[in-house]
Amino acid sequence: MRKKITVIILSITTISMSTAFIIKNSNGKSGYTGSPSEATCANCHGGGTSAAKSISVTASPAFIQDKYLPDSAYRVSITVNATGFSKFGFGCEILNMFNLNVGNMQTAGPGVQFLNAVNGRKNATQTTPKIGTNSATFTFTWIAPSAGGSDAVFYVCGNAVNGNNAMTGDLPIPYSYTITEGVAPTPTNNVSIENKENYSISKFYVLPNPAQDFTKISYFLNESKNIHIELVEINGKITKEFFNEVQIAGIHNQLLDLTMVTPGIYFIKVTANGQKINQKLILIN
Questions:
Q1: How far, in Å, CA of 74 to CA of 91, rounded?
Q2: C-alpha closest to that of 247 among 184, 207, 200, 204
């Protein structure tokens, strides 16, 4: 009788450990992006094949010539492609030349979560395997570092899985993509300035534009002024107020949160006492 009871207990323990193992891997893990000193998905998964496999990293607005603009917000899309598969996972880190976090990941898209690896690096990974025909795309917002920052390297390991609740028959796909700091363009001609005489605001620009979720405005004040920043619809209705306080003379940068604003055409209105500047802004999905 004792021997029979012991066998039953061991069987239950084995089943419990197996179930926990499956859940742990399905929900995404940090530290398997293929970045320096880290492993990839291949440490746990393998054996699968595909006629075509790849990883792509794109952004809105785009990384033109593989460059980012300082302090700008980008909606990053990571697409895992593997012909013949219908379930996908991924892990991503964005590191500088010292293998430390660069910029800031935020606003995870559907099926994406942020985890911290044991080395302190921030990871984006799946919450559960995402369903797709031959590919799946994962999104999140990345705020680029300030001017003078380092190159940003996207370390990604995608994983095409067959859903058999085991580590066999899966296809890990490691990838890396490097972008460098770009230079902001000069202000465009669609900036209108009212009360130009004795104006105190200059060197005004909005980037990115078109924007998604976030944009940044930059301007120079030649003296201390009360600054009021608003988002205005084309009919003149005020949609959102961002800022209203005194600022000292010098260069100023303001990151504007547009996450709750309906896509469309707006104007960013900046008022410095009696002087007004209006910049057209296109907000996209």
A1: 18
A2: 200
Residues 200 and 243 in one domain: yes
φ, ψ of residue 156 in degrees (nearest 5): -130, 135
Residue 124: inside a domain: yes
88, 130 Cβ separation under 8 angstroms: yes
Q: Are the beta carbons of 208 and 62 closer than 8 angstroms?
A: no
Mean local confidence (pLDDT), 12-32: 55
Domain that holds residue 160: 27-181
Q: Which of 23-37, 50-64, 89-103 has the lowest mean pLDDT?
A: 23-37
pTM of the model: 0.63
Q: How far apart are CA 228 and CA 278, in angstroms?
A: 12
What is the Cα–Cα distance from 156 to 179, expressed in whole angstroms?
Answer: 14
Q: Would you say residue 250 lies in a domain?
A: yes
Residue 209 one-letter amino acid: N
